[in-house]
Design a protein that fits this description.
CATH topology of the largest domain: 2-enoyl-CoA Hydratase, Chain A, domain 1
Radius of gyration: 21 Å
Oligomer: single chain
Number of helices: 12
Largest sheet: 6 strands, mixed
Order of helices and strands: EEHEEHHHEEHEEHHEHEHHHH
Helix content: 25-40%
Strand content: 5-15%
Distance between the termini: 38 Å
CATH superfamily of the largest domain: 2-enoyl-CoA Hydratase, Chain A, domain 1
Number of strands: 10
Number of domains: 2
Shape: globular
Strand order of the largest sheet: 1-2-3-5-7-10
CATH architecture of the largest domain: Alpha-Beta Complex
């Protein structure tokens, strides 16, 4: 088990991996180390066929993640100052202009959001308290979000003089609609779990005591009777089609997926188990048995 400093991981007997943000003394504030550790945990989960689903939650009852670690003060979002002169060769050109393609300019929340987006396992956010700033935006590429009744949310960027990050300008309008997304981002207010439910940010609100059990129920319901390879493909198909400009893009991928899966043992097992009225015993595994066309979005010339 990796010796993490900002998170803990617990793999349970039913194939659920719980990732807990563990900086409760600072309300689980997000840091670069937390980003790297979460990415490592997600990498390990994707490579482990015994992991069927992932739950992300926070330690304690005050916060899921209260946003970026602001211990750097007004330098928090001034990456050039934080990196010092060492940043200049890659971020600042000789004439003083900015190299906008520099890796140093990438925000850490966005790097994590893209990694969650690329996950081949379902990801559930169990929001146990305040989820503000990156604490709110890291939830967006998760498949299901539920909240405890004391949870609070805030897209507070405009009140800090910055803008939404972690790819939230792509995710948030697709989840809650453009008008609701803009209203929350313009006002920058912190709002209660019930407003998050009304606005479609979370699918349900439960008591703090029931939060993790409910998240586990959702994880089991989504995965216990379903083929792991089909789940992995379905997750990528549905998320990536949100950016398609015509249903033909979906038709092309659907056709490949149905043909590819139809040749594999899971399709036969799925049909036979249904006809024989018994639980399926799927044998294909995401680590070794993804169809040949995967990942289709990396294919040269494939229209996304």
């Amino acid at each position: 088990m990796t010796d993490y400093q900002t998170i803990e991981t617990q793999k349970e007997d039913d194939g659920v991996l719980v990732i807990t943000l563990t900086r409760p003394d600072v309300m689980n504030a997000f840091s670069a180390r937390m980003m790297h550790e979460m990415i490592e945990a997600l990498d390990q989960a994707d490579a482990d066929d015994t992991v069927r689903a992932i739950i992300v939650t926070g330690a304690g009852e005050r916060a899921f993640c209260a946003g970026a670690d602001l211990s750097e003060g007004d330098k928090t979002f001034d990456y050039a100052k934080r990196q010092g002169e060492a940043a200049k060769p890659s971020a600042v050109n000789d004439d003083g202009s900015i190299n906008w393609d520099s890796e140093i300019l990438r925000d850490t929340g966005g790097i994590l959001a893209l990694r969650i987006f690329n996950s081949i396992k379902p990801v559930i956010g169990a929001v146990n308290g305040a989820a503000v700033g990156v604490g709110a935006t890291m939830l967006l590429p998760m498949d299901v979000r539920i909240a405890s009744d004391n949870a609070r949310f805030g897209f507070v960027f405009a009140r800090r003089g910055i803008v939404p990050e972690a790819c939230s300008s792509w995710f948030l309008p697709r989840i809650v609609g453009i008008s609701q997304a803009l209203q929350w981002c313009y006002a920058g207010e912190v709002f209660a779990a019930e407003e998050a439910l009304r606005g479609g940010l979370v699918s349900e609100v439960v008591t703090q005591a029931d939060l993790l059990d409910r998240a586990r129920d959702i994880a089991r319901n989504m995965t216990q009777m379903s083929a792991p390879v089909s789940i992995s493909l379905t997750r990528q198909m549905l998320w990536r089609m949100l950016g398609a400009d015509h249903p033909m893009a979906a038709h092309r991928v659907d056709s490949r997926a149905v043909f590819g899966r139809g040749r594999q043992s899971d399709a036969k097992e799925g049909i036979n188990s249904f006809l024989e009225k018994r639980p399926p015993a799927f044998g294909d595994r995401p680590s070794t048995d993804m169809p040949e066309f995967y990942p289709w979005w990396e294919e040269p010339g494939f229209k996304k």
